[in-house]
TrEMBL record:
Transmembrane segments: none annotated. It comes from Helobdella robusta. The gene is 20197206. InterPro entries: Endo/exonu/phosph_ase_sf (IPR036691), Swc5/CFDP1/2 (IPR027124). This is Endonuclease/exonuclease/phosphatase domain-containing protein. It comes from the Eukaryota.
Length: 101
């Protein structure tokens, strides 16, 4: 048997930006909520063994993009994380383009 996965995705039809999260079935049935913030940022909420977990997919603007675009991304990221209750575990995946810290 091949394993099956479900893709939760958000992006632009131009294929310039986009983020996604693959979840293996049957775990995909445990997805409680999906928040598609923009083509660079999204999260899904899962319940795993009674633990609520938020999994982010993030794609930070690359070198060469405008400061405004970079600031908008980090503001959206920060604002979104600040809304998540402390009782929920946060996992962040993606390409932060060296902007860690």
């Amino acid at each position: 048997d091949k394993e099956k996965y479900k893709l939760f995705w958000n992006g632009q039809k131009t294929a310039k930006n986009g983020v996604g999260i693959y979840v293996r079935e049957p775990l995909a049935q445990e997805v409680l909520d999906i928040k598609r913030i923009n083509s660079r940022l999204m999260w899904i909420k899962l319940c795993i063994k009674k633990q609520t977990m938020i999994i982010f997919s993030a794609y930070a603007p690359q070198t060469g993009e405008s400061e405004e675009m970079k600031n908008d991304f980090w503001t959206a990221f920060s604002d979104t994380i600040s809304t998540i209750p402390k009782s929920e575990t946060i996992l962040i995946g993606g390409d932060l383009n060296g902007h860690v810290g």
